[in-house]
Amino acid sequence: MSTPARTSRRSGIRGGETASGWLFTAPMIILLGLFLVIPVLMALWVSFSDWNGRGSPFGGTVSFVGLDNYSALVGGGGLAEQDFGTALRNNAWYVLLVVPIQTMLSLLLAVLVNRQILRGRGFFRTAFYFPSVTSSVAITVLWLFLFSSSGAVNKLLAFIGVNGPNWFNDPSGVLHNLLAAFGVDTGPAALTGNTFLGISFWEWLAGPSVAMSAFILMAVFTTSGTFMLLFIAALQNLSGDVVEAAMMDGANGWQRFWRVTLPQLRPTLFTVLTLGLIGAWQVFDQIYTGTQGGPGKTTLTPAYLSYQAAFTNQAWGQGAAIAFILFVIIVVFTLFQRWLLAERGVSARRMRPYLPIPTSGGSK
Amino acid sequence: MNTTVRTRERTVSPSRRLRALSREQLPNRQVAGRSLLYAILIVLAAIYIAPFLIQVATSFKTDGDAASNPMSLLPQTWSTAAYERLFLNSDFPVWFQNSAIVTVFVTLGRVFFNSLAGYALARLHFRGRNLIFALLIAVMSVPGVVLLIPKFLVINQLGIYDTYVAMIVPLLTDAAGVFIMKNFFESIPASVEEQARIDGAGTFRVFWSIVLPMARPALVTIIILSFQGSWNELSHFIVATQSPELTTLTKGVASLASGQLSQGTQYPLKLAAAAIMTIPVAVMFFIFQKRIMNTTDGAVKE
């Protein structure tokens, strides 16, 4: 920060800091460089090559194929394109449902649990947060049991007279099922006749399959606790003055929440939404453990498809290409987040006069 | 809060006073509202807890009982067959041992390397520091799941595929952890360490015996995150190993789920495995519960 002070100090008690600085950061630089930066560069090369997994990808038998791997995915017209389109469709529906639901639920939980006069606050917080600490593998195993055809969820549905589906074996799209209930079994020719990424528009609009819906519920179950904590922290940092002023002006509880509290939570809301977006595009563990993409490829996701292409089908170039396309999708969302957070700077500055002076450790 | 409202009301306009009067009726409505709040919370909590209770209960059932009474919280006949099978008649102990080994080394490694790098980035003035920090931020934004193939490539190239080295070393430091430590070191006053420097202590000495003991709260955060992270890690072990002796719990239980060890559904067995797998992180969670519930705001606030 203060350059003059820095240079004058260097010869004094801070002598030799350059050496120790590099020495202290060396393990981190080597580890992250070796297992993160270099691998990404290697994979970038593989995505432009025809390596089939045998020998080294840098050996003489491997040749440069340009954008072939990428074009096979986004315009090849073959199975690769169809699978990639299906995986994108599945994951897009997953994101579209998981992100809003988990955000709303976690905000609701935070608001409910944040009451000062609530008895058993600790218990409720623990109950809502606990699913977040368990591993996705363990939760998936549990989910496979709860959502099996004669499992607990279907027993519960039978109580209220609903004949539950065979969750993880049902490839039918939820929206298609909804339309079928109204007698619409096939889409208009405009939708069924035209395709994008190898699957028809009608198929794009199928909605998540019943199997994917179970994964969507699972994601909401496991992430809402984490995001609840973020919202609780934000709620506790809000000053009570504004709410009190609104109370004085006769605003009821509902108005106070929507007009006073929620606008102040905007930065946290954006953080939760974008963290959710980034996380929801990376579905892998659940699919690997639970369904391996089935039934009918309706739980295939780009992350799992990338793994499958490389490790199972030995199409390493294609697998790496899928990973990089996914990377771009996620980076776009991260930039989107940056852009939204840039807006936060303005509102935070405007809010500053109304916020209490931050004291260390006194944020309870 | 109520008292301040009252005192202010005395000085406000008549219309306000009217509203204040109507608030007198609130107690009744408040009781109703409070009951509704508790009802909602209890139902929600039941939904969140029930799956785990069902899990534990089912792990003590027989296969037939689990299939016909999937919701009951009490087994018809208590059976520990699933646990006996897991511990005496399967690779489960090996998986558990591997997960434990990896978790211990990764956690120790991260505590040391993250704080070392975090301290240097926060406190030491050296040429290239800003560049390193910029790269760290860039690295942090790389989503983990796109690293599956890249990690395999480098592990394969280095000739360490299917070894403990491949399982542990790539996880020994993480960008987010370094970032947390850097933030923490920036928040504590520099005067103490400067005193030690004047007394002639070397940089590492200052770090090891003065700064690190002061960093206990942040180190606990690192321990919690890396314990949870490495115990629950799946994808890295999928691409780093293949032999049964190196299978971790996550990988092993995932293979159970897809039916590799068992004939038929065998839900008690699978759920018992998943339950045991949850115990260490659950214990960790309950030990540091207060910290986890409060630290998150400190860790995320930036």
Automatic annotation (TrEMBL), chain A:
GO biological process: transmembrane transport
Domain of life per record: Bacteria
ABC transmembrane type-1 domain ranges (all copies): 88-337
Keywords, in A-Z order: Cell membrane, Membrane, Transmembrane, Transmembrane helix, Transport
Topology in the lipid bilayer: Multi-pass membrane protein
Pfam families listed in its UniProt record: BPD_transp_1 (PF00528)
Location relative to the cell: Cell membrane
Keyword flag Cell membrane: yes
TM spans (from-to): 21-48, 92-114, 126-146, 210-235, 265-284, 320-341
InterPro entries per UniProt: ABC_transporter_permease, MetI-like, MetI-like_sf
Similarity field: Belongs to the binding-protein-dependent transport system permease family.
Protein's name according to its UniProt entry: Sugar ABC transporter permease
Organism in which the protein naturally occurs: Cryobacterium cheniae
TrEMBL record, chain B:
A single cellular component GO annotation: plasma membrane
Regions that span the bilayer: 36-54, 95-119, 131-152, 164-185, 206-227, 271-288
SUPFAM superfamilies membership: MetI-like
Keyword vocabulary terms for this entry: Cell membrane, Membrane, Transmembrane, Transmembrane helix, Transport
GO biological process, one term: transmembrane transport
Domain ABC transmembrane type-1: 96-288
Protein name according to UniProt: Carbohydrate ABC transporter permease
